[in-house]
Amino acid sequence: MAFLTFIFTLAWHAFGLFIVVLFFAFLCYCVYVKYIHLKYDHIPGPPRESWLFGHSPIFQRTMKNDGLVHDVFLEWAERYGAVYKLNLLHHVLVFVICPETVKEVLMSSKYPKDLFLHTRLFSMFGQRFLGNGLATARNHDQWYKQRRIIDPAFSSLYLRSLTGTFNERAERLMTKLADIADKKSEARMLELVNRVTLDVIIKVAFGMDLELLEDTSLPFPKAIETCLQGMILNTRNVFFRLHPKNWAFVEEVRAACKLLRSTGTEWIQNRKLALQSGADVPKDILTQIIKSAGKEENMTKEDEEFMLDNFVTFFIAGQETTANQLAFCIMELARHPHVMEKAQKEVDDVIGMKREISYDDLGKLVYLSQVLKETLRIYPTAPGTSRELVEDIVVDGIRVPAGATCIFSSYVSSRMERFFKNPLEFNPDRFHPDSPKPYYCYYPFSLGPRSCLGQNFAQMEAKVVMAKLLQRFDFALMPGQSFDIRDLGTLRPKGGVICTVTHRKHYCQ
């Protein structure tokens, strides 16, 4: 009995010591948070809602009420100016809207992607997600090696060769829309363009035919959406995985990440074996990357993992952003019949009745390019980017210390009156060849060395799909349509862009 009393007393004292240590650690953390506050409090910004959690409660409340966090960022930019700060525990985010600073930081290779976002995208809830791929790598040499391997797969010469695949996949969408028009049923345009863009990336990047427009049972669209939902929750709520009510969804996200990575492993290994055996293989992006990697002198096991990271990046970013741009574009054309009419006239003049749109035809569709650019101005599907400062910088007379995470938001700057007159007006003439070009306030594909590698690919694909759609059909939004935006890290139309579709009279085939 005395022994049990001794053990109990010892355990009680150990527990008491643990509580004291925990309290002391928390006290030290609070001192550190206070130090961070003092270090950055000279930068303007909205009042912290919580001393410890900073502005995080505002984000959580906005998301819970189905609002758009980026509109909150826009409101603060208009109130606090070219630079303002936000606090999240001991993290500080410094929003920068100054074009000169955008140019200075984004056009340089010395500012890495920020550590906080890298950590949250490297893995989700313990399952590797984007890892150290092109979109997330912080180490410049590591990133540059990957870029060197992948660059040939996105050369202008190779992109020219993809026009046929873009046409073929877009034709499948036209066939689907023709059936919808004949049946006089409604077209869920966001869902349809999501499937066709995923079909395209799987075909041109990985040589697979999955017929996603017809086979709605395949798990990939659902897996991508689950990953995107997990991504936004993982980056904006650091405590999300700790709450028991979220555990079921956390497991769904982990399973979706695992599905994409296991699919990538299988497809990459199968292609490597085919190349080694001398079999005929598609001349797609995957083949190009494997061949380029084979020319590198030092390929490690880690480099193989990076290839898988980039598979997941292409799989998601290669279709999600293009699909959302197409859906927003369709929505705005339906809201502005005079713009649609002008775009249709240009398509009629350039394309006529042709089914096969050539690479040279795309260059002649100048007004359609303006429409697509204006769509990305108001709805940048990838709304911003971030960098970590390696040295102090001065923004609009305000010193921003080294180590800060700088956020650059194309969504915010593109919707500000100081950069664009009547910013919420959909006006493709802003991007007329003779109009002045926006000065570092419009960057839907980011800027500089870390700009999106696939932007030319994405715009070629979007132009082919939109040209065929405008050539064949008239479309109108169903009554009661929502024009709100849904935030999944990428931006998409919340209402799904539900349309009625009718054949154009001169093109009924």
TrEMBL record:
Protein's UniProt name: Cholesterol 24-hydroxylase
Compartments in which it is found: Cell projection, Dendrite; Endoplasmic reticulum membrane; Microsome membrane; Postsynapse
Annotated Pfam families: p450
Protein family (similarity comment): Belongs to the cytochrome P450 family.
Keywords of this entry: Cell projection, Cholesterol metabolism, Endoplasmic reticulum, Heme, Iron, Lipid metabolism, Membrane, Metal-binding, Microsome, Monooxygenase, Oxidoreductase, Steroid metabolism, Sterol metabolism, Synapse, Transmembrane, Transmembrane helix
Enzyme's top EC category: oxidoreductase
Catalysed reactions listed for this entry: desmosterol + reduced [NADPH--hemoprotein reductase] + O2 = (24Z),26-hydroxydesmosterol + oxidized [NADPH--hemoprotein reductase] + H2O + H(+); testosterone + reduced [NADPH--hemoprotein reductase] + O2 = 2-hydroxytestosterone + oxidized [NADPH--hemoprotein reductase] + H2O + H(+); testosterone + reduced [NADPH--hemoprotein reductase] + O2 = 6beta,17beta-dihydroxyandrost-4-en-3-one + oxidized [NADPH--hemoprotein reductase] + H2O + H(+); progesterone + reduced [NADPH--hemoprotein reductase] + O2 = 17alpha-hydroxyprogesterone + oxidized [NADPH--hemoprotein reductase] + H2O + H(+)
Primary role: P450 monooxygenase that plays a major role in cholesterol homeostasis in the brain. By promoting constant cholesterol elimination in neurons, may activate the mevalonate pathway and coordinate the synthesis of new cholesterol and nonsterol isoprenoids involved in synaptic activity and learning.
Membrane disposition: Single-pass membrane protein
Functional pathway: Steroid metabolism; cholesterol degradation; Lipid metabolism; C21-steroid hormone metabolism
Residues annotated as binding heme: C452
Taxonomic source organism: Hippocampus comes (Tiger tail seahorse)
Biological-process GO terms, alphabetical: cholesterol catabolic process
Cofactor field: heme
PANTHER family the UniProt entry points to: CYP46A1 PROTEIN-RELATED, CYTOCHROME P450 FAMILY 46 SUBFAMILY A
Superkingdom field: Eukaryota
SUPFAM superfamilies from the UniProt entry: Cytochrome P450
